[in-house]
Amino acid sequence: MGFVGTLHPLRSFRRRLPWALGPICCALMNLETLVRIGSLCLLLASAETLHGIARTALVTPCIGKERAIKLSAVTGTVLAFGICLFQVPSIGLHTPLAHLALGIGLALFMAAFDIGMGRLLMRKQWRKIWPDFDPRTGNYLTYGLVCLCFIPLMVWLLHSN
Predict the structure, then answer these.
(1) Contact at 8 Å (CB) between 109 and 85?
(2) Is 28 part of a structural domain of the chain?
(3) Residues contacting residue 147 through CB under 8 Å, at least 6 positions apart
(4) Could you tell me where the beta strands, DSSP code E, fall in the chain?
(5) pTM for this one?
(6) With contact defined as beta carbons under 8 Å apart, do 93 and 34 qualify?
């Protein structure tokens, strides 16, 4: 009879983990919420990696590297919005501040992922990685990351109306 409550493996670990974003946001998240957020991070990273490969293989030969990089900032943001549109509601956050914190966390993860891919996989030097984040060099990655900060909040607003 006690087995019924433990059918879902994550719910059996109902330990509450503190999550804080400065003094403004202090909420409790359970392990299931953290796993869902981690899954969203991995899904976004996988999709953006495939997006970058497709840009390099398919779009760059047609329109050139500079235009392809600028276009990919827009298409990557749309891709992230589409993924978040289906995944964010299942995370179970209930406040605008929690969704904004999620967006900031996703943006930080994606920036770290981009740096990690550049350094570890592509073996880029630091001096070649930082221009990827500088809009003055024609790369709009930073704008995409800023948009990613607000995408979960926009999804929450869409679903709450």
Answers:
(1) no
(2) no
(3) 77, 80
(4) 16-21, 25-30
(5) 0.80
(6) no
74 located within any domain: yes
45-75 pLDDT per residue, tens = 999 999 999 999 999 999 999 899 999 999 9
Domain residues for 122? 37-160
Number of domains in the chain: 1
Tell me, yes or no, whether 85 lies in a domain.
Answer: yes
The two three-digit tokens of residue 98, written as one number: 């929690």
- Up-side HSE of residue 14: CA atoms within 13 Å toward CB? 6
Is the distance from CB of 113 to CB of 46 less than 8 angstroms? no
Judge whether 77 and 105 are in contact, CB under 8 Å.
Answer: no
**Other Cβ atoms closer than 10 A to 4:** 6
Residues of the chain with pLDDT > 70, as a percent, come to 82
Is residue 13, in this structure, part of any structural domain at all?
A: no
- Residue 122 DSSP label: S
Whether residue 110 contacts residue 52, with contact meaning beta carbons closer than 8 Å, is answered with: no
What confidence tens digit (pLDDT) does each residue in 105-138 have?
999 999 999 999 999 988 989 888 888 888 888 8
